[in-house]
Amino acid sequence: MVQAQRSVDRELETESFTPVLSSSKAAALHRGEGHLDGAVNSSLEGFSFTCEQADLSHHLASVGRAVASRPALPVLANVLVEADAETQRVALTAFDLNLCIRSEFEAQVKGSGRTTLPAKLLSDIVSRLPNGPMTLALRATNANSRAQDDAPALLTSAAGQYQVRSMSAEEFPTLPEISLRGADTDEGFAGEESPTAQALELPIESLLQGISQTLFAASGDETKQVLTGVHVKLLPGDPPCLEFAATDGHRLAMVQVEADGIPVASADGGVGLDFTIPARTLREVERILGAQTIASTVELRFDRSRQRDGVPSQVQFVLPPRANKTQCQQRITSRLLEGQYPDYNRLIPKQFERQVTLERRPLIESLERVGVLAAQRNDIVKFNLSAAAQTLRISTEAPDVGSGEESLPVQMSGPDLELAFNVRYLLDALKVFHTQQVSLELNGATQPAIWRPLGAMRLCYLVMPVQLRAT
Asked: Helix, strand, coil shares of the chain as percentages rounded to 5?
């Protein structure tokens, strides 16, 4: 029978939109006559910008990931829209009080202003509009006024016009921002300078590697708040390294990646990068960084003036670090998880009685096949390691369903051993390893097992075996 797995912890409002009947100008646009600007009613004073449909749709989709699914405030279901005529840029921002995503892009801005619009509604309609230029403007409440709070926004394209009810930008919460002293910022969207803010410019490749090889191991249990993120630490060296670690109490993923773009002096004490970033934030960072093709670095900012017990309370990713006025720029700002992260290094054994080397791809395929039956019984698979036969036998039994067994050749040193694992934990790790062979280091059937990709020894995956007992 199978006992509960040992824990590592022990060892340590939808708004409606109203289509506006096409005017003669909109009809002319549909026929390809005239310029889009002419479709904007002359009564629309102040807030107005024109951009490509594809650009607005892309940026709405990007920031929409930070819109609250169950907003504490009605305005949090909206996206903040800001237009700056001086810089000819538009900024879209979504904020759920924990995660903020801001995307700035170039547009033809005829009037500055800010408002909030229903995020999902706006994204749904814009994504369905035809390619080409489109205009978004606020309708003035009277002939002598500029665009007013809560006035309907008018969305115009070659297909026609739509009105969308807005909500005052003054109701939108104050946005988190970390601005560096002397840093280049867009005049219309600059935050307050902070003399205590610090920043590092990181290679995107290094950051993505650290995230992808650890994020899967973060806990989904909100009662263990600090474990629902990835711990990031800057280690001294030449070149310095970034250490990423994540654990859910049953497994631990840790990787060190070289960060060639970081000055050695920064890692030697100049910058105190040692904190835990929520997994949700890193999923968005991974998604945005993975989709970009131009920048090679991303700027990581954090402000020590907002610290609690020496830990900065928020972090910000800026991509690209130094955007000019013709470039899009995205900022992801997040709170940091509070609490002391476990001292995970002490969980990793220094010596091992057994060393096993085997091919990664055949192992994955065997685990996936046996895992079909294992899914019927808590995802548990047994490993039988034979030093004499130099084989690994993988098996599972599911009462009233069936059983399965496969054998794989291995290179093994040390005595025979029988133990069990959660098959999902093994597959999660093996699929982010990128080497042909992997090593398994073991002591006993109830002690931590260490998996490593051969040739990438800075990547370590610890998983606790499942305890077996006789029936």
From this structure: 25, 40, 40
Range of the domain at 370: 348-463
Task: Look up residue 104 and give its amino acid.
Answer: E
The model's pTM: 0.82
Give the three-class secondary structure for 12.
coil
Inter-residue contact 347 to 8 (CB < 8 Å): yes
CATH number of the CATH domain containing 337: 3.10.150.10
Angle between helices 279-291 and 204-212 (to 10 degrees): 130
292, 322, 344 — which closes off a domain?
Answer: 344
- Non-local CB neighbours of 321 within 8 Å, separated by 6+ positions: 201, 295, 297, 298, 299
pLDDT at 325 over 90: no
Asked whether residue 469 is assigned to any structural domain, the reply reads no
pLDDT tens, residue by residue, 352-391: 999 999 999 999 999 999 999 999 988 999 999 999 999 9
Q: Are 26 and 167 found together in one domain? A: yes
Pick from 37, 81, 84: which is nearest to 56 by CA? 81
Mean pLDDT for 450-465 is 91
Beta bridge partner(s), residue 396 = 404
Q: What is the pLDDT of residue 122?
A: 96
Alpha-carbon distance 150 to 416, whole Å? 73
In this structure, the answer to whether residues 208 and 331 fall within a common structural domain is: yes
- The owner of tokens 């989904």 is 220
pLDDT digits (tens, 9 = 90+) for 53-75: 999 999 999 999 999 888 999 99
If you search the block for the tokens 């009810």, which residue do you land on?
165
Residue among 43, 115, 56, 36 nearest 80 (CA): 115
The end-to-end CA distance of the chain, in Å, is: 5
Predicted confidence (pLDDT) per residue in 146-200, tens digit: 445 567 899 999 999 999 999 999 999 988 777 765 544 444 444 444 556 778 8
In this structure, are 165 and 34 located in the same domain? yes
The Cα 327–Cα 322 span in angstroms is 9
Residue 313: HSE in the Cβ half-sphere, 13 Å Cα cutoff: 8
Strand order in the sheet with 251-258: 274-278, 229-235, 241-247, 251-258, 459-463, 449-453, 437-442, 354-359, 411-413
Task: Return phi, psi of residue 227, to 5°.
Answer: -85, -5
The per-residue pLDDT for range 416-432, each reduced to its tens digit, is 999 999 999 999 999 99
pLDDT in tens, 267-314: 445 556 889 999 999 999 999 998 877 778 898 888 755 555 554 588
Half-sphere exposure of 345 (CA within 13 A, CB side): 7
Strands of the sheet with 197-203, listed across from one edge: 113-118, 78-84, 89-95, 99-106, 329-335, 314-319, 297-303, 197-203
